[in-house]
Structures are given as structure tokens and as C-alpha cells.
Amino acid sequence: MYMKWKSLFEPIKIRELTLPNRVMMGSMHLGIEGVPEKEEAMISFYTERAGEYGPGLMVTGGISVSPEGDGGHHFLGFYREKDLTTMKRLTTRVHQAGGRIAAQLFHAGRYAYSELTGIPAVAPSPIRSPIHRETPTELTELDILNLLESYAEAGRKAKEVGFDAVEIMGSEGYLINQFMSPATNKRTDYWGGSFEKRTRFPLAVLNAVRKAVGDDYPIIYRLSGMDLVPNSTTHEETLAFAKLVEENDADVLNIGIGWHESTTPTISMMVPRAGFIQIALDIKEKVSIPVIGSNRINDPVLADDLLQQLDMVSMARPFLADPNLLHKSQAQSLDQINTCIACNQACLDHAFEGKAVSCLVNPRAGREYKWVYKKASERKKVLVVGGGVAGLESARAHAELGHSVVLYEASDSIGGQFNLARQIPIKKEFDETVRYYTTELKRLGVSISLNHKPSTEDLLNHSPDLVVIATGVVPRKPIIPGVEFAIPYPDVLSGRATVGKKVIIIGAGGIGCDLSHYLIERGDHEILMLRRNGRMGEGLGKTTKWAMLQDLKKHGVKFRTNLHYEEITEEGLVITDGETNNKEFLKADAVILAAGQESNLPQEYDRLTEKGIQVAVIGGARLAGELDAKRAIYEGAKIAFEPQSIPTTQR
Ligand code: FAD
Ligand code: NAP
Ligand code: SF4
Prior knowledge:
The structure is a single chain. 32% of the residues lie in helices and 18% in strands. The chain has an 8-stranded parallel barrel, surrounded by 5 helices. It has a 5-stranded parallel β-sheet with strand order 16-15-14-17-28. It has 23 helices and 28 strands. The protein is an alpha/beta fold and 651 residues long. Bound molecules: flavin-adenine dinucleotide, NADP nicotinamide-adenine-dinucleotide phosphate (NAP) and iron/sulfur cluster (SF4).
């Protein structure tokens, strides 16, 4: 498709800074900031995304302005001398690569963890967040004045170490937002009470930073367009505040949506693309400074459309998924873009678990410094057996590194389990991953053999240097009398089987939950999900599980655990309740099996090792337990970039 860009590549001037395009890479905490041995990883992450067709501006993850508001060990802090040296190296390298980078001035307020900072968390009022165990200490007036000085100092230092702009973090429920909101600011002094008083701290921060950085320096204010928490700032107040921010000399408004504690999903795959853009548009009507829209904008064509009404768009995770997103857009190679599928599994989930951030569809994110695209000195013949995401990524990465690759897939299409996952209404984005691999393998000259389960002889005939076994998983068929009356989940998702109104699902993991979503969308079902032990949706990511379960509950899906399966019949299921020890008959029109997966590792390929061929087994074929696409894709890439990691026992 040829795309005539209307606005995406239009430059925009903010004070003395000219951005070459209208896309900002929004702030993302990488989980490695401030860790000395990870400095190169952090700097390489940004430099990879700088360059001629990088985002117009990149914003760092939050950089703490003072110790009690710090995000923890893996954050940079303006108040730490050693971090300033790191920041200087970061900005120098980004500029050398041709990019521009802004520092985000951050204070967590009541979201800070004293076990990480060693200091009690502070807030305008001593009100605990529902997602926190700790009640913050109320700031004194003197503390507030000192904090203003910390913000000013942070702005000064940001400019000194070479950042091109600063972004004041005034959204997502952090300190500044806590001052703004009547839900968290119950002060009765100068800094709390009426709308006017609640805006004093945010505006004082803005003025302090402006004074510190001078008139020529760009300040972006990240404003909470919608808090999505009870009894908080109203829409009218938000609009009025946006005007005040403009009047107090901010240059750009970047519109954030929702607080961390909000129970409304704001960026997960349940949120439609650009689902919250109206908020930014409402604000745009009230101000004359540039407004940046954000949240679930993962497609340059959509971004270009939005730019007809907004000045800039913020895309954060899409640059984790594909550092070359804009380069590919400029080159009209949209099919080659590795699209962010909004799964949160390797980015936000990692950040919340204190792990280094990466990306499910691009495990190279955060590893750019060691997984370098350099043609291999020796061109290997690589055969990949299995076209699920593990095999696809392995084929892609090997080919990108200059190896000759043949991929075999037993079915008539590539994608493996992703072809089932993409049937789930909220997982339509998975289509993009299959599209990406389809175009990439073609571009890289990977030979794909469909409907082909190669025999060992087929493989040996190619005299391969490496055979990658990525034959994935098969659904588990549990040993329950009458199991033949049950329907395996792939039959339902692929449309081969239809189910009646009353449905029982055996298994309540990720796939059981997805299956419920699928059935909910298709009509009027009464769904009962069962597990022998444990909780519903176990194994799902922290940042998405709650929303998934909330949605199932809302649609009346029932759940039972602590039970034993006795027998499946044509009319339903007999169980024994673990608590009462009573047998029960649960009537159902259909019993569906979503009872986990087992490895599919054909034994015949064992002979390859006997013949001295190097073999790597990856993804579900290696281990079905705790398999997900994140691990499958990571393993596919890892053996290409780190061939030495292939265990010698597999050779
Ligand atoms: P598979 O996808 O099983 O691929 C194996 C491929 O090998 C298949 O195409 C198969 O046909 C082929 N094959 C088998 N034997 C041979 C042979 N002898 N020769 C040639 N080809 C062969 N994971 C997540 O991380 N997040 C999610 O949100 C998520 N949602 C999911 C939703 C659903 C409904 C489902 C079913 C799965 C979901 N998953 C999710 C799991 C994820 O899709 C899998 O973990 C991942 O795709 C496994 O990849 P794989 O390549 O190891 O195996
Ligand atoms: P899973 O999450 O491990 O769940 C398997 C379910 O099957 C469990 O509820 C388990 O419950 C049940 N089970 C296991 N052995 C059984 C047996 N012998 N008899 C009866 N029931 C049995 O696996 P999955 O749902 O198949 O998902 C596969 C992978 O894809 C997982 O890693 C999952 O995280 C990933 N995935 C992720 C998402 C996502 O949105 N992030 C979505 C879908 C899938 P009991 O053992 O208690 O009975
Ligand atoms: Fe997007 Fe998922 Fe990658 Fe995060 S891990 S950037 S949500 S594709």
C-alpha cells in the first residue's frame, strides 16, 4: 500500500528545538536505569531509536527529582552525581546518532516504596493508594518549598547534561497529580482545598522549572486528561487546568490517561486503538499550544489521521516493538513493521516486577548492545521445523544475520498457536505479528515449505549446519473417563465445533479465559470455568489479569475450584467437591478442554543428533510448562544471536 503522509513527517518547532516529525516516543521506564553495569544497554536502547527517521523526540523514563520520590534502585536520579555522568553520556550518544531526547522530571509521591528508597513516601495528604500497603507522610509547607527547589534543580541539571527538553510528569497519579486531585489532596492550607488551591503546586513546579531552564528551553507538561479514579478531578477542571498550564508558559501538553490504580484498562489490548483520543481533542480545543495524544496508537497510518486534529502523537511501546517504525513508514514499507500488540507481557509486566523491560514481539529490545545485526562470517544452512512464533522468529533472526534458512510447517499456514489466539476478539492485534513474519521471511529470502512434516532424511538431504526444532505444543487431553465427549479448545476457536448455551470449560488458565471471551462475544452462553486447584487466570500478566477477570465477571462467567473430575458424559460433567466430598452432576451442552499443553517433540528427530547434526529445540517443543509467546519468540531469537547458548547435549 502506498501511503501519502499528510502530517507525520511535518517538522514542528518548540521554542528553539525543531523536531523533524510529529511522533514522540513517550516515556518508558526500562528497569535498568541507574544500574551501572546496565548503562550500555540503556544508552544503546535510545541510540538505536535515534537517527534520521527516529521519533521526533524521545522522552526518558522518569528521572527522580528527589530521594523520597524515587522509583527505586533501577531509576536515574537528578540528585545523584554518578547518574548525571550517565545522563551526559546518554545525551551525547543520542545526539551523535542524530536524535533528540527529553528528560522526564519524576516524583512518585505516594506511589514510592519506602523499602526501595529507604525513606517514607510523601504526599499532599496521608492517604494510602489502594494498590499500596504504605500510607504516605503528609508534606509540610517547608517540604513543599524544598520540593519546588528540587524540581528547579532537576530542570537546571537536565539542561546542563544536554537534554533537549524536559517533561514534567503531572499525570498517572504521581505526586503532581496527587496535588491536583481532590481524592488525594485534602489539605486545608495554601496547597489544598478549592480547584484553584489544588492547582497551585503543579503550577508552582512549572514556574520553578521555567525559571531554572530559561526562556529558550522547551517544557512539556504531561497532564492527566482523565484520572479514572473515583471523586477525582472533573473534566471541566481538567480543561480549565490545561489553559492554566498554557498561561504558565508550558510549551506542549502531553495528555496521559488514567492513574496506575485505576480499574479501567487504558493501554491493554482490551482498549481499542486510540480509544481515549477524544480527551486530547477536547483539550486541544481549549488551548493554542501543541497537544500530544497518546494511548494505544500503534499504527503510523492511524497516527497520521489523528494528526489532522492534533499536533503530535506519543507512541511508546510501538518503538519497543520496532525501533525502525518511522523509517519503515517513510520508506513505504508498512508491511515490515513489527507492530506492538498491546500485550504488556515483556514491557509493563516486567517494569512492575522490577525486571528489565523488553518486548514480546521484539526480544532484542533492551539487548541491542549485545544482539547486534552483523552478517555472520560463516553462512550456515539452517533448517527450522515448525512455523509457530518460536520457529518464525528463529528463521527471521538467522536470515537477518545472513544465514540460509528453510522453514517447514506441517499445516497450510504459518503462525501456530497465534492462529488460534487471533480468533479471540481482544487479540486481533496478533494478526499483525503473523503479517510481520509473513513479509519479513519473504523479504529475507527464507524458503517456506507448507503442509510439510519433514522426515529426518528430508532434513539430512540438505546437509544442514543447524536444525531448529520448533514443533510447539499440543493441547493436553487429561485422563478423565468419557474425555472423548469433550471438545478440545482448538476445535472451538477454529470454528470446527459449535457449542450450545450451557458450557463448562475444564481449565482456567490463559486459554480458558480467552475461550470465555471468545464465547461471550459470540452470543448468549452460560459459562462455568473449572480448575482442580488454584485461582482463575493464574499465569496471566499483572497488568492485564485484573482487567480480564473483571470483564469475565461482568459477563456472568462463573468459576469453581477445589474439585476432582470424575466423568464426562454427553450431558455434562460429574465432579467431586473437594470441600464437601460430595459428588455433583454439572449439566452442560458442551464440555470444552482447555487443560494446558504438552510438548510436541517428534522422536524421529533424535536421529539427527546421532548423525552429528547440531540441533536446537525451542519454544513449546522444548518445554510446554509456562510456555507463552514471550518465551517462544525469545528462544527463537536467542539461538540465532547467541549460538553458543545452544546446549551441547542437544548437539
Ligand atoms: P506453536 O505455536 O505450537 O507452533 C508449532 C508449529 O509447528 C505449528 O504451526 C505446528 O503446525 C508446527 N509443527 C508441528 N510439528 C511439525 C512438524 N513435524 N513439522 C513441521 N511443522 C510442525 N501467549 C502469550 O504469550 N500471550 C497471549 O496472550 C497468548 N494468548 C493465547 C491465546 C490462545 C487462544 C492460544 C491458543 C495461545 C495463546 N498464547 C499466548 C500462547 C502462545 O500462542 C504460544 O505459547 C506460542 O505461540 C507457542 O509458540 P511455538 O512456536 O512454541 O509453538
Ligand atoms: P495454563 O495457563 O497453564 O492453564 C492450564 C489449565 O489447565 C489450568 O487451569 C490447570 O488447572 C488445568 N490443567 C492442567 N493439567 C490438567 C489436567 N491434567 N487435567 C485437568 N486440568 C488440567 O495453560 P493454557 O491456558 O493452556 O495457556 C498456555 C500458555 O499460554 C500459558 O503459559 C499462558 O500463560 C499463555 N497464555 C497467555 C495469555 C495472556 O493473555 N497472557 C493468554 C492465553 C495463554 P488445574 O491444574 O488446577 O486443574
Ligand atoms: Fe507491545 Fe507487548 Fe511489546 Fe509491550 S511487550 S511493547 S505491549 S508487543
